[in-house]
Design brief:
The complex is a heterotrimer. Chain B is α+β, with helices and mostly antiparallel strands. Chain B is built from two helices and four strands; from the N terminus they run E-H-E-E-H-E. The chains are: A alpha/beta, B alpha+beta, C alpha/beta.
């Protein structure tokens, strides 16, 4: 028995519906909802295996109001390539958006080969990577997008090692290197920015790549209420640069009005707890250095030059 | 129930799952303080923030999991998380 | 009737197969090159480049993506095609299960080849046998004419509303794909008459936004497997109907599930798959010249396994000699095991010899088959392996 619909009710307007089984405070479910509502109803979604797939499509229910297809973990880009090729064969290619979406593991690691193939062949597809920086669905294991020093269940903190020893794979740069005409990053703290980028991407023909930082309360070990605050602090500290690269040129960056020390971003997260012990001092300094390097690389502070 | 070819699930049927029963705390909206700025609606991961008859925002408790994001992002202190005793 | 059959011509197997696939009008082709499948997909690429075939050809970066792309294409409502071999079939293995469970009527030609290691590019059936549990229908061609005719039949079977399962057309690599034989192709009009345009049972459609590829829990998964098994069983009848219809239309029959040769009065039945069956026929003739009443049962359809047909066909023989070109290490020849089980279940008392030969491209001439029948003691003592070279046996220090 559907409840009386309120004057404005997501049950009515959202193409991504409540009742899915994401954890409370899930950044990925917010990201997916924002992406899909920006893309609109004439969209086909192809989803890699992962949290998003599991929490939205437990038979017999679905949280999607657009056609949606899931096959496997590593093949979403190839499945999407087939969908797009079929739309071309049917003469419907100009009329329908194809979005392939996956998590950081499905994108940067196991699905990397098929993603590269999709980019290189120039399919008219938007790929969205929901980056929560580890394999959350299987229990918070390290992925190629897990940041330096983060503790995961396979990059744990011990007497010899303080969490993840490597940095994030630079996927946006890899997409740019494929000649992908539109590459962007954003976070769920900036819905307007996110929606604008999705719409812009979909207006461009060819492959597109958007990477969205989506905090995971379970995997990051933070209070469920802090999802948005952390997604903002990641940007304001320089940890996660929000950029746009069009035809190989950096065309926009999200400016940092007041640079925030990385401590503010790291402290609320259990995965970085060890950085605030005497043993973690050196690693903490390295995280700050990484953020500073990002700020330098993308010119996130200071006057804007077009 | 039958398995049709491809095992389809129908659009938006997740609305049949009332995830509100996961909750241990719920947001209480103070309509007097609410300016209808939309931030809570924008950031709700379910989504289950709605506009009530008076034009102010409120929550659909059928789905709210009690994450507290709406209260955290509200600039007007119009949402309080309260422990829910069942 | 002759009006609609093209003139018989001598062609390379791969080229003839590609020409037949072209006449099935696939709308999306996705393939990755692997020997000995390559000539098939090269000819199709050329047909697309020449504008003779209106199709999107997706040049994927792996076989995993080849099968994934045809999955996506079929899910969007078009007829799709791929071909592979050996490691390619293994690399796409998990996608095969997906295509079948999503009930997508993909057709894939497999140029059957051995599996590495040691790397070996020649023919056996290990690739197809490794995919036998996936839900694909598997039909083996004996010669190139059958390999061609199977392409049309495969789509007709796969797309049948009672089936909706993918079909693997198994063609012995090199033995058939690279050999020149006389073949007759269907005139396009006749092909269109036999195989009308594809009408999908479901398709991703923005005007009908349905979710596919859901999660089934312990409460439903078992039942779904049962549903797939029922579709496999319904295919038994459909495969025979389609072969019959094709025969009526073209005058060409190659059997449906199985085909018998000189089996009526036989004491010994020779059983095999694919091009090997031609050698079995020759061996049966030679054995009859030696006074041994031999016949052949060609297993044309391996999945669904036509156990009842096989038991009925072999009910009167005293001895069954199965020659496998696929082997389950730690157990034995795979076809042999299934034949044994089928006969046991039906109470057929025949003695079954389960031999294996031809692995990695070793030829199985009729003389090998004859020897296996008249002097089975040595291969029986060697786990069924035929013609082992003693100098290579045992592991060196």
């Amino acid at each position: 028995m559907p409840k009386v619909i309120a004057p404005r009710d997501p049950k009515e307007w959202s193409l991504f519906t409540a009742g899915h089984t994401a954890c409370a405070g899930c950044g990925q479910s917010l990201g997916a909802r924002l992406v899909l509502n920006a893309a609109g109803p004439r969209t086909i979604l192809v989803n890699a295996t992962g949290c998003l797939e599991v929490f939205t499509t437990r038979f017999p229910s679905s949280a999607w109001r657009v056609p949606w297809l899931h096959s496997l973990f590593e093949n979403a880009s190839a499945v999407g390539s087939g969908v797009e090729a079929a739309l071309k064969a049917l003469g419907k290619a100009d009329d329908v958006n194809v979005i392939v979406q996956g998590g950081d593991g499905g994108t940067a690691d196991i699905g990397f080969g098929s993603l590269s193939g999709m980019f290189e062949r120039g399919h008219n597809i938007l790929y969205v990577c929901y980056d929560n920086e580890a394999y959350m669905n299987t229990g918070i294991q390290r992925s190629g997008l897990t940041p330096f020093a983060a503790s995961t269940t396979t990059s744990p903190v011990g007497s010899e090692v303080l969490g993840n020893t490597t940095g994030k794979k630079d996927l946006p740069a890899i997409a740019v290197a494929h000649g992908v005409p539109y590459v962007a990053t954003t976070t769920v703290a900036y819905p307007k920015d996110l929606e604008k980028k999705v719409k812009k991407a979909l207006s461009i023909k060819g492959p597109k790549y958007i990477q969205i930082l989506v905090p995971c309360p379970l995997g990051w070990g933070h209070d469920t209420a802090l999802t948005i605050r952390l997604a903002r602090l990641a940007v304001q500290s320089g940890i996660f640069p929000v950029i746009e690269v069009e035809n190989g040129k950096l065309t926009s960056v999200m400016r940092i009005a007041r640079k925030v020390p990385v401590d503010e971003y790291l402290k609320p997260q259990a995965r970085f707890r060890h950085l605030f012990t005497p043993a973690g001092r050196e690693e903490l300094a390295r995280v700050q250095a990484l953020a500073d390097a990002n700020i330098e690389r993308f010119g996130l502070l200071g006057a804007r030059a077009g | 129930m039958k398995f049709y070819p491809g095992v389809p699930a129908m659009p938006g049927t997740s609305l049949d799952n009332h995830t509100g029963n996961w909750r241990t705390q719920k947001p209480v909206f103070d309509h007097a303080k609410c300016t209808a700025c939309e931030l809570c609606e924008q950031y709700c991961p379910e989504p289950c923030i709605l506009v009530a008859d008076d034009g102010k925002f409120d929550v659909d408790l059928d789905y709210c999991k009690g994450c507290g994001i709406c209260a955290e992002v509200c600039p007007f202190d119009a949402i309080k998380m309260v422990l829910e005793l069942k | 009737m002759a009006r609609t059959l093209e003139k018989t011509q001598v062609m390379e197997g791969s080229r003839a197969i590609a020409a037949s696939v072209q006449r099935c009008r696939p709308q999306v082709i996705a393939a990755y090159p692997i020997t000995p499948q390559t000539h098939i997909v090269e000819h199709l690429a050329q047909a697309v480049a020449n504008g003779e075939l209106k199709a999107e050809y997706v040049k994927v970066e792996s076989e995993h993506s080849a099968m994934s792309a045809v999955l996506g294409a079929e899910a969007t409502g078009v007829r799709a095609y791929t071909a592979s071999s050996s490691q390619g079939v293994l690399l796409m293995h998990e996608v095969l299960y997906n295509v079948a469970a999503l009930r997508l009527p993909v057709v894939m030609t497999v140029a059957n080849r051995a599996i590495s290691q040691p790397i070996n590019i020649w023919n056996d059936h290990q690739d197809a046998m490794s995919a036998r549990d996936t839900g694909f229908i598997q039909i083996f061609a004996e010669d190139n004419q059958e390999a061609c005719d199977l392409q049309y039949q495969a789509y007709k079977i796969a797309e049948h509303k009672d089936v909706l399962l993918p079909v693997m057309v198994c063609v012995d690599g090199y033995v058939l794909t690279h050999s020149y034989e006389p073949v007759s192709l269907l005139d396009q009009d006749l092909a269109d008459q036999f195989l009308p345009p594809y009408e999908p049972s479901w398709a991703l459609d923005v005007d009908r936004p349905v979710t596919y590829g859901v999660m089934l829990g312990p409460g439903e998964y078992l039942e779904h497997k049962y549903v797939l098994q029922q579709a496999q069983k319904r295919a038994l009848g459909v495969i025979e109907d389609v072969a019959r219809e094709f025969g009526t239309l073209t005058g060409r029959t190659h059997g449906g599930l199985v085909e018998e040769y000189r089996l009526d009065d036989a004491d010994v039945a020779l059983v095999g798959l694919g091009s090997l069956v031609s050698a079995l026929r020759e061996a049966a003739d030679q054995l009859r010249e030696q006074g041994i009443k031999a016949g052949v049962l060609k297993i044309r359809t391996f999945r669904p396994f036509p156990a009842e047909k096989i038991a009925a066909a072999l009910g009167g023989v005293k001895r069954v000699v199965v020659i496998d070109k696929g082997y389950s290490l730690g157990s034995g020849g795979i076809l042999g095991m299934e034949i044994t089980a089928a006969l046991a279940a039906a109470g057929v008392p025949a003695l079954v010899d389960r031999f294996v030969g031809g692995l990695g491209g070793r030829p199985i001439p009729a003389s090998t088959v004859v020897r296996a029948v008249v002097a089975p003691e040595l291969p029986r003592s060697q786990d069924g392996f035929l013609d082992l070279k003693p100098e290579y046996l045992g592991e060196g220090d």
